[in-house]
Each structure stands twice: as structure tokens, then as C-alpha cells.
Amino acid sequence: MQPTLTKHYRPTSGVLLDSMLADALSQLYQTIGQDACIAAVMDVLDIVCPTDSCGVLVYYRQQKPLSLLHRFHPVQRQVDADIYSTGPYALDPQYRLFLQGCDSDAYWLRDIAPDDFYSSQYYQTFYSKTGVADSIDVLWRIDEDTALVFFMQRNINSNDFTAADLQALRLVLPMLWSALTRHYQLAAQLPGTVQTHHLQHKAEDKTHLQVQCTLNNFASSLLTKRERDVLLYLLRGYSSALTAEKLNTSDGTVKIHRKNIYRKLDIGSQAELFSLFINCIPFAEPDETSDPLQFYQQSQRSPVFATAPKR
């Protein structure tokens, strides 16, 4: 008599554990607690989801991002790799998500970016000149104010990421989180290690303070508070319709505000607005409410103000 089956097991679909991935995982667990661990995590991610360029940043709530690793082909880039940390990071959808307290996970840019992001001047001026067409960030929170970000990018000559890529990454994340947790438990006992340098990276960060000051005060001498609210959404790539939704007003009202912003700032395009914002950052005075735009405009009119003010 044949036994009655009471269980039915189904095969589990997932990441193919080939020799390259097996070797990368083995290497990762051998480097836990050592400087090479962070690079080993990046190696695993790049095998699971191949990229054209990738790297590791540390996001801080009160400091500019710190670069730990960057792998890219210089010929594909029209801007310096370090330009991100001079100010553009403040408008990055991934960084904004971190500030909002997102969980540790993999985040696809197209899922979190504002609706007009890919036609925004931020994308055209920064992303396109880095050669990047699509990106996924794997973010692991160290604590409330700090996170490791493994950024994975494909360029304009490659295919975009897919939902399958995101799913594959999320399958290996529990293993990576366990390795990183153990790594930081061990590395915390060795303050001289390279990968834990950021834990002691507590010096005053003037660039970040200037970026925050610019966000808080840019064009405040010329625009109303509501116009400044619209301006910040415009810089980050929000359409008029989505900006209206965020500000609980009408699309037509937002378009009027945008028209007034262009007129008051004497500009004719979003490109000029973005350039003006970035140019004002070195002229911002941290811990003050003065408008950095005024100092920048003075520098354009007089050789006395040819550089940012020193006080």
C-alpha cells in the first residue's frame, strides 16, 4: 500500500550559487573585522547584480558623505568623482531617503525619485555627466544618524536594472547584514582600521554646514517662504503637479510661483537655477540666516568679493 503524501515540497527559486559567488561569499566571511570587509561586500553585490561602476559611501545626518571605495572607468565621466560631496548630494533622492529614516534595504532610483527627476537639471547636470543612467543603492544603517551605502550603477550604454536584479539583491541581503553586523562588532575594538575611520569622523564639516545653510537660506532675501518651498521641490526634480500635492495647493498656483521665482532671480531656465544654487554654497555663512545669494551676487559685481567671504 502506497503511503499518503501529507507534505509537498516545492523547489526554491533564487540566486544561482555559482563558483564566483561562492568564492566571494567565502572571501567575505574571511575578511570580517578587517579593512577588506567592505570591499568584499561590494564584490558579492557586483556578482549578484553586475554594474558598470560601483562604490561605498558613508551617509551622515550632520556631515557630508564620506567615500570609502569607488570603482569606475574615468573615460565615461565628464565630472570629477568627488563633486558629489561638494553639494549635489543634498538634492539626491537616495540621500533624502536616508534623512527620512528609511530601513536597511536595496532601493532602485526609479522607485524613489521624484516624477520629473530624469528631466530635472540635477539629473542633466550631475547624473548624466557621470555617465550614469540607472542606479540601485544598498543601504545598511549603522545607527539612526549613519549608514553605509553600496551604490551600484549602469551607464548610458548598458541596459537598465530590472525588477529581477532588485529581487536577487534582496535575497542576499540577510547574509550581508549578518556579516556587516559582526564586522562592526569586531572592528569597533580596533579604532585604527580604515573602515572604521568614519566612526571617529566627528570634526566640524564646513561643507555640510554650508550646504545646509544654502538649503535653508538660498534666495530668502528675494522670495517668499512659499516660493522657496516651491524652489526646493523644483531643484529636486518634482513636477508642478506633485509639488502642488506636497504643498496642498493647486497646480496652477505652483506654476505662478515658479514664474515669480524665475522673474525675481532674473533667470530663464532650470539650468540657471541649479547653477545659481550650487555656486552659492561656498558663500554660505553657517549658523547665520543671511542669504548666500547676496554674497554670491556681490562677488559677481565687485572684485573685492571674488571669493567667498572670510569672517
Overview of this protein structure:
Helix 1 runs antiparallel to helix 2 (about 35-50), helix 8 (about 225-235) crosses helix 10 (about 250-265) and helix 11 (about 270-280) packs across helix 12 (about 290-300). By secondary structure, the protein is of the alpha+beta class. The longest helix has 25 residues, at about 165-185. It is about 45% helix and about 15% strand. It folds into two domains: about 20-200, Transcription factor LuxR-like, autoinducer-binding domain (Beta-Lactamase, 2-Layer Sandwich); about 205-305, Orthogonal Bundle (Arc Repressor Mutant, subunit A). It starts with 18 loop residues before the first helix and ends in a 10-residue tail after the last helix. A five-stranded antiparallel beta sheet has the order 2-1-5-4-3. The relative contact order is 0.12. It has helices at about 20-30, 35-50, 95-100, 110, 120-125, 165-185, 205-215, 225-235, 240-245, 250-265, 270-280, 290-300, and strands at about 55-60, 65-70, 105-110, 130-145, 145-155. The radius of gyration is 23 Å and the shape is elongated. Strand 4 (about 130-145) and strand 5 (about 145-155) form a beta hairpin. The protein has twelve helices and five strands.
